[in-house]
């Protein structure tokens, strides 16, 4: 017997759902003989790549993890006391294992279908409550991307709200974190806003051109100021004031809200989230109630369901950029949901007393360190401080000697102003660490430490009485109940059980690419070598990260065909913005500042026009044809009309309608002929990789959603990563960073950290490593196969709105449900009914109202696709019952969906369909039932009665029982 050895454990076979037998069956259903034939009928020949991707050979999971262990081992884990908004912390193991490492949490989608996302929504309400309580303000959103971008969002918000329409200046304290100032400058410049950077103690607030200000509390150098007078004077001048702050410090310090601040921003990283070389971390934004209708980002609010029970959902303004488009004040489409859940759970687990104790211990250690260094003759200049000492040395030479000795001892401080040293202590600092710091100073100064250090039994706070916090916080029972690990474990599991994720069934959201997030890809994320680095540590300590960045940038250049890539943008919307800034920087450098028109197709993602406006551009909409393509005649006419001022075209490819537009090369050439550049939205790269590329179609820049095509999990709505690739002449305008020389780039930062969400880049690094070029190409081919299989099975039941010239769709399709309105059935009814079948709805009413956009991805097996197809056909039959008059137009199984256990367990069942039809419509649903925990939610009620913080249950029920009958039926 001859035996033929070959790799038996190939990762691509784990990633792609259909096996060879399933592929053959699917091809027969579609009516083609091979995948090659299907691809030839789907992807225009003119844009096909002429050669395969030049990427490293695919590795097995075991080989990759062994390789990556060596790469990560190049990172050096120093004791970091750099501060500047990033601090070592401890994520409780019970939260790490049961949320961060749990696919039930990290593979869920943004909670647009709230009935099957009640767990995550409650976790986000907890986060909002935590931020509201600690900042002393009245409303907060469910997280932003980081501190710098949160600060920039308040700049935009208050600029748009200012009654002084000619005011174009914004005061920025020179003690705001330097990376925040960097992001503020980037965001302000395109809008013609001037930053006035100076000392808040001497600022002239009577300047009529000022519309607002931002302060840091505690300041970047550690000082703690009372800003009450500054805020009062600013308000007298009609100005808004934002205070950037530290949530842990606010357990001891008077909160900014009590000083009169209009908004409070910051980073919740030190609530248990590893530093991760800069991210991802959940930024926060809290503000006054009067701004609740304009606050950017997602707000989670309470409402009621069809039975009158409390239920959570996202508030109206959540996707305001998709509603208002170019009139939107923000382009935010994502958040840092998974990270805000971690920070909120940190507060739930520890509670107010333990968190305050962490802060007390840190301050006590800082006081102890100050006294010990004072004994060595070191001057500490901060009169009032929380965790940070500001030390003045005698010379630059002494500072350099200190740095050398500290790094030899595995310690990082902050060095600035040639003779200054900053030391920021944190939750993980022990008295032994303080002693080690003192020893370093003693060696450099040539002195001896006289006495062994010990933590004192009590210390006096450095700040004055008016800065001592007296108000309560985290008083809700949720923060005072789950302090034992057993109770915490059960609470998190209860919430997890309320959410549908990829652990339950496929999530076929068009344009959102909910694909496998392989366990092997996720494993390195929680390694200390990945999570333990400070983003501003010396680069020689992060050689492992340097190798990851270099390889990943090179591989993404190969995939896109571009010359350079920036990994800094930490969301797709940030990538859009950074890409447009690169185009703007190019035009400005050539003296073409007048080129400010962005042509955007009517079908584009809503973030596109919002990003263009933020980049200082004027949006001109290009029409779509009846078949969903860009109207080339209209595009050419407008390109000619605006030839002198044309900056760029923003285009999504394949189109948002799920079609490879055959005119794309002509479209891009038209823009170039009129002096513009082409920005390609990379949302649909899952249908390009290995078959075509942005450079091949003629694009100059694109962003890539690593949380879509390259397997970083959506995490319930974040984290995301949105790096951008550019052609060679745009490369000088990629984002840089004020604190880190990112390969010589000096253009303004778009995020707080130099490499954005660095700690989750290993996920995409692993995916590309284990797939290889051939595997990535095969993934694209299978994604197209799966989509066309669903199309072939469903098109006799639901019209497919757009297809290519050969009747094929790309990786997604749009099912038209508008004809059901005649029978009183809305697309929302179908979306809610899918929950009873155990599925999350496809994308609802985007890009066309009344439709479902379906994207199966390559990761789903034929068996799972068939289950989804069975559910969709069964729902079509239920719609037919209504159309034929056999089911009542209002009292039917679709209008009442979803059905909870409480709904069907009533003693007397009065509905005109059976309980079994309600909850067990298929055999699979009977065997593997996922139960929604609330009935259909009344979103309008929630927007009229906005409640976005934890409310005692008894208070909520008492109020609502007077308004809502116990079983009012569906909400029409």
List keywords for this structure.
single chain; 972 residues; alpha/beta; Aspartate Aminotransferase, domain 2; seven-stranded mixed beta sheet; 32 helices; 26 strands; 11% strand; glycine binding; Glycine dehydrogenase (decarboxylating); glycine dehydrogenase (decarboxylating) activity; pyridoxal phosphate binding
Give an account of the 3D structure.
The structure is a single chain. With 972 residues, this protein is α/β, with parallel strands linked by helices. Among the domains are: 93-333, Aspartate Aminotransferase, domain 2; 528-771, Aspartate Aminotransferase, domain 2 (3-Layer(aba) Sandwich). Helix content is 37%, strand content 11%. The chain is built from 32 helices and 26 strands. Strands 2-8-7-6-5-3-4 form a seven-stranded mixed β-sheet, sandwiched between helices. Strands 16-22-21-20-19-17-18 form a seven-stranded mixed β-sheet, sandwiched between helices. Strands 11-12-15-14 form a four-stranded antiparallel β-sheet, with helices on one face. β3, α9 and β4 form a beta-alpha-beta unit. α8 (147-161) crosses α9, α13 crosses α15 (431-445) and α14 packs across α15. The radius of gyration is 28 Å and the shape is globular. The termini are far apart. Residues 956-972 have low confidence and may be disordered.
């Amino acid at each position: 017997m001859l035996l033929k050895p070959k790799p038996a454990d190939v990762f691509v076979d784990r990633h792609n759902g259909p096996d060879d037998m399933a592929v053959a069956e699917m091809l027969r259903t579609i009516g083609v003989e091979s995948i090659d034939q299907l691809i030839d009928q789907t992807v225009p020949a003119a844009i096909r790549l002429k050669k395969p991707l030049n990427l490293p050979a695919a590795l097995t999971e075991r080989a990759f993890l062994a390789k990556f262990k060596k790469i990560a081992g190049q990172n050096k884990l120093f004791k970091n006391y750099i501060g500047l908004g990033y601090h070592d912390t401890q994520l409780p193991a019970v939260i790490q294992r049961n949320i961060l490492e749990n696919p039930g949490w990290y593979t869920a989608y943004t909670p647009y279908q709230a009935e099957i996302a009640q767990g995550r929504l409650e976790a986000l309400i907890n986060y909002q409550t935590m931020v509201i309580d600690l900042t002393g303000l009245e409303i907060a959103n469910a997280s932003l991307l980081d501190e710098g971008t949160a600060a920039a969002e308040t700049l935009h918000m208050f600029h748009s709200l200012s009654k002084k329409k000619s005011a174009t200046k914004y005061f920025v304290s020179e003690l705001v974190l330097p990376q925040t100032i960097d992001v503020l400058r980037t965001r302000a410049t395109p809008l013609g806003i001037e930053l006035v950077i100076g000392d808040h103690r001497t600022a002239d607030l009577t300047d009529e051109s000022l519309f607002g200000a931002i302060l840091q509390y505690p300041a970047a150098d550690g000082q703690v100021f009372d800003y009450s007078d500054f805020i009062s004077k600013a308000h007298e001048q009609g100005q808004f004031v934002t205070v950037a702050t530290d949530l842990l410090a606010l357990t001891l310090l008077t909160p900014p809200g009590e000083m009169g601040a209009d908004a409070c921003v910051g980073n919740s990283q030190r609530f248990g989230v590893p530093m991760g070389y800069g991210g991802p971390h959940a930024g926060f934004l809290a503000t006054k109630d009067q701004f609740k209708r304009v606050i950017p980002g997602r707000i989670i609010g309470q409402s009621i369901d069809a039975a009158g029970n409390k239920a959570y959902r996202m508030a109206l303004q959540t996707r305001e950029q998709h509603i208002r488009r170019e009139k939107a004040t923000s382009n935010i489409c994502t958040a840092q949901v998974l990270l805000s859940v971690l920070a909120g759970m940190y507060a739930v687990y520890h509670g107010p007393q333990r968190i305050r104790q962490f802060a007390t211990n840190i301050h006590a250690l800082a006081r102890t360190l100050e006294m010990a260094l004072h004994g060595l003759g070191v001057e500490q200049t901060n009169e009032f401080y929380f965790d940070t000492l500001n030390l003045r040395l005698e010379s630059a030479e002494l500072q350099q000697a200190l740095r050398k000795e500290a790094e030899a001892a595995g310690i990082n401080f902050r060095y600035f102003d040639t003779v200054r040293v900053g030391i920021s202590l944190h939750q993980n600092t022990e008295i032994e660490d303080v002693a080690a710091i003192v020893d370093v100073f003693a060696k450099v100064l040539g002195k001896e430490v006289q006495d062994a250090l010990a933590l004192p039994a009590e210390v006096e706070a450095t700040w004055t009485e008016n800065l001592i916090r007296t108000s309560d916080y985290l008083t809700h029972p949720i923060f005072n109940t789950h302090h034992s690990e057993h109770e915490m474990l059960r609470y998190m599991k209860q919430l997890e059980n309320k959410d549908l994720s990829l652990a339950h069934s496929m999530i076929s959201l068009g344009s959102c690419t909910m694909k496998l997030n392989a366990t092997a890809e996720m494993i390195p994320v929680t390694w200390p070598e990945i999570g333990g680095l400070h983003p501003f540590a010396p680069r020689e300590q992060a050689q492992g990260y340097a190798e990851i960045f270099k390889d990943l940038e090179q591989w993404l250049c190969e995939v896109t065909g571009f010359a350079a890539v920036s990994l800094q943008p930490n969301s797709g919307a940030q990538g859009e913005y950074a890409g447009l800034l690169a185009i703007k920087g190019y035009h400005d450098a050539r003296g073409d500042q007048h080129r400010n028109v962005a042509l955007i197709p009517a079908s584009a993602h809503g973030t596109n026009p919002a990003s263009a406006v933020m980049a200082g551009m004027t949006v001109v909409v290009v029409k779509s044809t009846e078949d969903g393509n860009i109207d080339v005649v209209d595009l050419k006419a407008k390109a000619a009309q605006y030839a002198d001022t044309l900056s760029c075209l923003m285009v999504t490819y394949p189109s948002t309608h799920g079609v490879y537009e055959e005119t794309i090369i002509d479209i891009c050439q038209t823009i170039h002929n009129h002096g513009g550049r082409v920005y390609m939205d990379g949302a649909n790269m899952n249908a390009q990789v290995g078959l075509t590329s942005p450079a091949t179609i003629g694009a100059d820049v694109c962003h890539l959603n690593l949380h879509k095509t390259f397997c970083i999990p959506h995490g319930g709505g974040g984290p995301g990563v949105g790096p951008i690739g550019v052609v060679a002449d745009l490369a000088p305008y990629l984002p840089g960073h004020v604190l880190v020389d990112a390969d010589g780039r000096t253009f303004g930062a778009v995020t707080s950290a130099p490499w954005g969400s660095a700690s989750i880049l290993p996920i995409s690094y692993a995916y590309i490593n284990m797939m290889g070029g051939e595997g990535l190409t095969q993934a694209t081919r299978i994604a197209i196969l799966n989509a066309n299989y669903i199309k072939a099975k469903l098109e006799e039941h639901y019209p497919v709105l757009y297809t290519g010239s050969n009747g094929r769709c790309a990786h997604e399709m749009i099912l038209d449900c508008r004809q059901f309105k005649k029978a009183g059935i809305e697309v929302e009814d179908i979306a809610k009914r899918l929950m009873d079948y155990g599925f999350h709805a496809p994308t609802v009413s985007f890009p066309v109202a009344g439709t479902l956009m379906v994207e199966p991805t390559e990761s789903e097996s034929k068996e799972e696709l068939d289950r989804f197809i069975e559910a969709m056909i069964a729902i079509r039959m239920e719609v037919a019952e209504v159309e034929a008059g056999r089911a009542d137009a209002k009292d039917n199984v679709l209008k009442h969906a979803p059905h909870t256990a409480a709904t069907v367990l009533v003693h007397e069942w009065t509905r005109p369909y059976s309980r079994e039809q309600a909850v067990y419509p298929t055999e699979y649903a009977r065997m593997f039932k996922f139960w929604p925990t609330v009935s259909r939610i009344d979103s309008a009620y929630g927007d009229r009665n906005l409640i976005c913080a934890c409310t005692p249950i008894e208070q909520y029920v008492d109020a609502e029982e007077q308004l809502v009958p116990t079983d009012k039926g569906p909400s029409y």
